[in-house]
Amino acid sequence: MIEIDKVCVDFAGGGGASTRAVDEVSLHIQAGDIFGIVGTSGAGKSTLLRTLNALTRPSQGSVRVNGVEISALQGRELRSARQRIGMIFQHFNLMHTRTVAQNVAFSLKSAGWERSKIAPRVAEILELVGLTDKANRFPVQLSGGQKQRVGIARAIANHPDVLLCDEPTSALDLETSATILALLKQINQQLGITIVLITHEMDVIKSICDRVAVMSGGKVVEQGTVFDVFAHPQHPFSQQLVSHTLNLTLPERLREHLPGQLLKILFIGDSAEQPVLSDVAIRFGVSVNILHGKIEYIGERALGILVVQLSAGEDTQSVDAAVDHIRQHTAQVEVIRG
Ligand SMILES: Nc1ncnc2c1ncn2[C@@H]1O[C@H](COP(=O)(O)OP(=O)(O)OP(=O)(O)O)[C@@H](O)[C@H]1O
Ligand SMILES: [Mg+2]
Predict the structure, then answer these.
(1) What's the Cα-to-Cα distance from 326 to each of 180, 237, 275, 283, rounded to whole Å?
(2) Average confidence (pLDDT) per 10 residues, the chain, 338 residues
(3) d(CA 22, ligand 1 centre) in Å
(4) Rounded to an integer, what distance in angstroms lies between the CA atom of residue 70 and that of residue 74?
(5) Whose CA is nearest to atom 11 of ligand 1?
(6) Which of 22, 173, 222, 260 could form a disulfide with 235 if both were Cys (CB 3.0 to 4.6 A apart)?
């Protein structure tokens, strides 16, 4: 559906130097997916997203949307391809001198809708985003969450195939963010619109995305299902993002001074159903002390994470044997301190 193939974007800088904002990125995004792109500020996320509707042109490589190479289109063909791609922004970008209904109607007029069909479509789409009673208000009279709902209404009014979202919840509080993310999910499921969403927060990725690409320094350093990237992040930058979100750090006093070994254990699927820790306590005579724990729900799947201390006085062999046993019966074990 969206094929990004070895895309580079260079910006001219002062004195002939140039900045490579996007560096050889290749991604394939399936129709109907909610695809997240996560990375820190300056990673190149917005620049990459803007190549998907040719607001930015790649210096090298190609971007195909629905089989059409959008990066090569011009003029009328480009305008018509863009009408199949909606976009929403962190700061909403609404027209302040027009009402909510007029903001939405404007996008339909620009797309060449017949005059008589515009008002019913505006009413329909405002109902979908829950703003029927705000149709005649101006943006300044709305809360941030309501403004983003107008942004979404405007972006999807013309029945696009793809919705591009550039940090759609970064200007909103946590609770409002959750309602906007739920609305995006509803739009994806109800209307089948493919969503590409960029964010610097793994929590946003976790709450609605199916797949994720991690960007750092203009490159995609890792991509996969959200569950896999959370469960087994491969690149140090992804590991850092995930561990920051899971927040399983121990106070230094515990990390440095507790006797025995400290482990981080991952439980997935079947391994979550076996009493592995009480087994090792009985079989190897070790004491097990739980220091940290949580269950993350990612889509329908549960990912259990425990940080435990295993100790058996001077008997380090029993502790080693217990660690081996846990390794064999759980998804993953990381020795935090041996
Ligand atoms: N129009 C431009 N001209 C020159 N340099 C640019 C331009 N747009 C972006 N850049 C540079 O490209 C790099 C990537 O910027 P980009 O806005 O894509 O990052 P981002 O990941 O979206 O960051 P943020 O999370 O802060 O929005 C940065 O170094 C930025 O300074
Ligand atoms: Mg950005």
Answers:
(1) 41, 27, 10, 12
(2) 96 84 97 96 96 95 93 90 94 96 96 95 97 97 96 97 96 95 97 97 94 97 95 92 86 86 86 81 94 87 90 91 92 85
(3) 9
(4) 9
(5) 21
(6) 222
